[in-house]
Here is the input.
Amino acid sequence: MQSSTLTGHKFKKGDMLVVDVDVHAHESPAALAPYCEMPWRKSLEHISTVPARYLDVPGFAPTIVPWPSFPQSGGDRRNTVTSAAQMRQDLDDLGVDIGVLFPDHLLSHAALKQADYAVALARAYNRWLVEEWLTQDNGLKGAIIAPHHNPEAAAAEIKRYAAHPHVVAVYLPTCCVDPLYGHHRYDPVFAAAQEAGLPVMLHSVTVVYPVFPFNLQGFETQFATHLLAHPFSLIANLVSMMETGVPERFPELKIAFTEGGISWVPWIMLRMDKEYAERRREVAILRDRPSRYVRRMFFATQPIEEPEHLGDMATLLTLFGGEDSVVFASDWPHHDFDHPSKVLQIPLSDEVRRKIMGQNAMRLLGKASLTEPAR
Amino acid sequence: MTQAYVVAHVDDLPEGRHIVVEVRGREIGLFNVRGRYYALPNACFHQNGPLCRGAISGTIVANAETGWKRTWVSEGEIIVCPWHALEFNVTTGQCLAYPTRRLPTWEVKVEGTQLMVIL
Here is the structure.
């Protein structure tokens, strides 16, 4: 097993429960092929012969990379996790009790064309996840993919796994999703998630080109595209869900936003409230200011902002009720993962720390079956 | 009060290589850059990543001297953190992304075939 470079860099967590709402399982086409229905199994077997790159496989994880690339990281840093045992070991090294698994390549699932293929891939991933990663009560939990290409099929997947003790969330691929998640075609997905008591978790990735946020082609570096693509696609989908009243029409639905950091939240909340004052008739389905709905949503920390004065992050949390809605995420083992100690460096009370590092996530994921692992 | 600690044999550290040793409970990266030895802490100030387990590299600059063209420089002098790719110049401890941040460095002495770090 290749070293994770995590060993020896633990933090003192004492009895603090640490829940990490975003870690990544590596689903190669070869791994999913046995779980995939025909004829798409043939396609995965064929794609398995293509050399894989990091989050970039033609026909599986379609990535447009028109930028030059330089060697950056090195040493023995591994950026994939290929088994449940390896993930459990890594999470132990990170000091994480409960980790919620998301895919690697299928972060760009919404960019796939051909709905039947995309639905088959989502089903194969969900089967593989449940059968290979979620077999023990060891703190590994999973988010099943809801294929946006076919909302009825997505709702059926949610119903299929609703009672599984280790499925704790529905992953909504947010990169390249078109139309945005406020569209009424997704109502069956939200209805199924609400009924199942499972949160929907929007997770983006940089391949948001050529749909929202469009004009990414205007930039010439990944510095620009990576920093804008993640939060902008989350913002676009949040606003879209607000304009059709998703949080009003599905009042019990828990909605979470992953991998955009958190500093955008007060900004878009205040912008929406400002606009709402003038244009309330357009969004009359909302019974109160958008900020009142935003305060019921959840926001994952990673990539946590790192201002010069970390006290600024404590102030930021107060701007949107983040003490009760921010949930820790590491994004392990990806290139921009956050170690828990970075979030713990923010000067917060012990009570708020415990909420952000674990208790808020237990409310977000909160199924009756979700208990702290006895380890 | 400084003290010299024997940390390696010169054969452990040929030119262009770097290793991590432990001295008084502290992990230290030892580097051989073109025949000169350097020592840095194996801890990145950013998120406490194991900096010296990263790869040695050069880096890119683009400034008035290079006519604002991206230019590859400092080959063999840059250590890149394996966690988030922050770059440091091994010979000075200087962080390239944060002009005001510099890691401590320690003197490395050669005595016969022994390498010693002065802490």
